[in-house]
């Protein structure tokens, strides 16, 4: 059908008729071809807004879902409800301060948010990080990865209607977060990474909590996974659902567990090693199915690998300083730097440009959730409304990172 | 998925049943304090700057911003006298200025309180000295102040607040609560009308409306020239079947609406004549 | 009237409220005394007694309906509390523990909260349908209660088509949900309403077919009769002879009560709250109540059909009427007739005496004693009426029913939710054939075993 597509610059496009409660579609003429296609309802179709406030959209994602009965025929994600302008804030702060702003980006795994910018700034400054600091970074980050994945397992179950696993996930996370609070000083927004090291050495409180936790971590994970891993209802709802094959995953540029669940063993820790990961033994778990169940199970496997890494790190922890000598006010030479790490959701990168002043000229965060969220649109059509939640949960996006 | 159908569900059910009997992890917060690690950054601490002054300017912005009012402040005011809780803006504004001066190295002048309508505070200072600057004796201070000035000027209230450390709002609240304390200059005559049911039945309503129209002010108001104010008074149930109307506190027995109007006219006329 | 004429200033505030009531009470006593003296009241009583005796069935129905309506409220409160506490324990939490001992009054506070909330009617709703929907749902649940036997002789009505009535009336609840979903002017509600219609109608069929085997074995559709058919030890319960039917019944009942894993109609992670999305205040409370009443209802039905209702698992080897021997009856009679008024009056006279300082303690005690003596006599009569058998039956019934309620809650704490197509597939592809197979097997067995 030939819908007139008005220009985006036309101010009259925006409001033509006042909206009424009976309006199913936006009260203005479509502004793009996609909008025209999406908001044209055929017989028996209806639009429903999942979000921005909805019990299971992982923050403030809004999914406009076109439904035919219970079957989804199209979906349109709307982003930007949690945009805080963190990149711009970082460009208006000096290098030390910019790191503090990154914490609330992906609030489930804050330490990774700090690590990538810190590594980029270290490249700009040409700072060498002490080995003990590198080990502490790996230790803290892997703990945070477990905390993030533990919460993911709970969310996945909650979105499928299970009430209990989220609490077990939070118990697991709370132990880790308390531990990290003993190390970093905060429970959620750690602000621990520093250019040239970390803020503060390991302390007795942290180590004793870590020892307590390590004594039962694997057992607890195994126990908690029996709730869902073999549960017929859970397996039937997730197996074969939202399948991403190898080609599709590569084409969309997915990273992290979502990519590895499709059978591609790409992990930044192995592909482009950073820190002390080359010295550590661990496997990159992969699954070949690429469905929601594989993505869930892959994260369970990753938790076990992270526990393995932590075990090695504790035993190999070298002595020495935890901070390199870095001036208080840093002015790197003009240049650009890119640092990428493997966050719990995939490749998390920071691109920083220095113009010679004490503030970054450009401070760009590449967030894996944003890329992974692309998969929502091709995966949804043909599924049922309830599957939206299963697919969304298995992709594990965090809106804080997507909207920045 | 297990080979036996339903085994996965049974395993999960077993786990939840086992958890049912396990010890619980909830920390009952107010009764049971969580163990906060020593490195925790969320503690509140007051820091001193290199001039030896508290970095905290007692601006109370943290206390005001705190949504659950868990932040409170205590200590002495700048004169090292009284306990301070977060209070009037005029106090912390002064303090900030003082600290700024101290940091800049310039001499810190004695605080001279300047209000928009200054009064001679020497007598007030004597009263305050006598009452030991104690905010608990606020009523006595206010009464003696009124006895001296005839009413309570705003500058005097501000001075009392400043000197005792009480909030301006508290002092003002005390002054405006009591009927015998006046915030405005006294009028020459006060006509009081009781509004209790007994007096209303005896006809005080008619007298009141007659007085209101004659004076041109509602009950509780003062005529523009300040000569007469019309105020509610209380007969305490002893009106004896007649409306309770007072002139400067003295009962006017057997008064009628016409007589009241005449009384009001005479008073305003006399006042106008006197003033002219 | 000197009491009334007392200056009220000498009374405490509570006393000021009580004194006018005392005046009314005295006036009432005077009127009644006059009525008895002139013979008017005895005549009325005799006439009324005759009318009641002539229409004893109607009176019984009214009393039973009132009792059941009153019974639903504490039942819902207990189940809500169980849900809060059991799920909390399984989540390794403590759950409600602030209101009442161990938080037992938390659900009561929930009820009061719901009562005091604004009863909001959003723009665009079909007001009359929107208002009636919760009532329809609640009434269906309560009506189904009428035929449930709680103990021997303790039921609203013993219909000879009791089971049919139960399913017919219980199935009406879906109309309320559909009304709510349609009238709410909300797409989530609409989806919830349609889901509930599809789900409940589909699951009615295996639910009803699964119990046909039980009906054939018992030879009656009266729930009372079905329980009596199972009397004996626990080996006589129908769950032993009809395990497949019980399995089908249990799954279908879970779906019928909208419980996890079949709570699709109010799937909070998908369609927010389903049909109840736009409801608030007591209207939402009615849905809430109906849901929990339904849980108890289906638990009770499972107990009645498959677990022997009020019968004990192992019958007492000696007769249980032992308290009704003349000596024991005398002891109990004395205890209730003498002990209860003395202690009860003491308990109530103390606060009265404290409220009214001028009242002598003896007078306060005497007043309450006058009230308690009839109460004690009434209790003794009730005791004689019901006898111990009924009491034990009620206890057994509630133990079994709440075991089922616990299972429902336990499942809610553990299981995720199924999808709508899996739900329908389960009903039509598995439960319906299974219930039919059970039906044929039962029929065959009856033909073979009892020619």
Care to describe what's here?
The complex is a heterotrimer of chains A (404), B (276) and C (451). Chain A is of the alpha+beta class and 404 residues long. Chain A has helices at 33-38, 86-91, 95-102, 110-125, 131-159, 165-184, 204-225, 232-238, 246-252, 257-260, 268-271, 292-316, 368-373, 376-379, 385-395, 399-403, and strands spanning 45-50, 62-68, 71-78, 193-194, 197-198, 335-343, 346-354, 360-366. Chain A folds into two domains: 11-78, no CATH class; 86-403, Cytochrome-c3 Hydrogenase, chain B (Orthogonal Bundle), CATH 1.10.645. Chain A is globular, with a radius of gyration of 23 Å. Chain B is α+β, with helices and mostly antiparallel strands and 276 residues long. Chain B is 41% helix and 6% strand. Chain B has helices at 7-21, 61-65, 89-104, 122-130, 138-149, 154-164, 168-177, 197-201, 204-215, 257-275, and strands spanning 189-194, 228-233, 245-247, 250-251. In chain B, helix 4 (122-130) runs antiparallel to helix 5 and helix 9 runs parallel beside helix 10 (257-275). Chain C has a domain at 120-319 and 390-449. Chain C is built from 18 helices and no strands. Chain C has helices at residues 2-5, 13-38, 40-54, 56-90, 106-116, 127-145, 162-170, 173-183, 187-210, 212-218, 223-229, 238-241, 243-256, 268-271, 281-306, 326-355, 361-414, 420-449. The radius of gyration of chain C is 27 Å and the shape is globular. Classes of the chains: A alpha+beta (404), B alpha+beta (276), C mainly alpha (451).
| CATH topology annotation of the largest domain in chain A | Cytochrome-c3 Hydrogenase, chain B
Q: Mind telling me the CATH superfamily name of the largest domain in chain A?
A: Cytochrome-c3 Hydrogenase, chain B
Helix/strand order of chain B: HHHHHHHEHHEEEH
- CATH class of the domain at 189-271 in chain B reads Alpha Beta
Proportion of strand residues of chain A: 5-15%
| Order of secondary-structure elements of chain A | HEEEHHHHHEEHHHHHHEEEHHHH
CATH level-3 fold name of the domain at 189-271 in chain B: Glutaredoxin
Head-to-tail CA distance between termini of chain A: 37 Å
Strand order of the largest sheet of chain B: 2-1-3-4
Give the helix level of chain B as a range of percent. 40-55%
- Category by helix and strand content of chain A: alpha+beta
The figure for the number of domains of chain A is 2
Largest beta-sheet characterization of chain B: 4 strands, mixed
Alpha-carbon distance between the two ends of chain B = 106 Å
Radius of gyration of chain A: 23 Å
Mind telling me the C-alpha Rg of chain B?
32 Å
User: What's the CATH class of the largest domain in chain A, please?
Assistant: Mainly Alpha
Q: Specify the helix fraction band of chain A.
A: 40-55%
**Unreliable residue stretches of chain A:** none
The fraction of residues in strands of chain B falls at: 5-15%
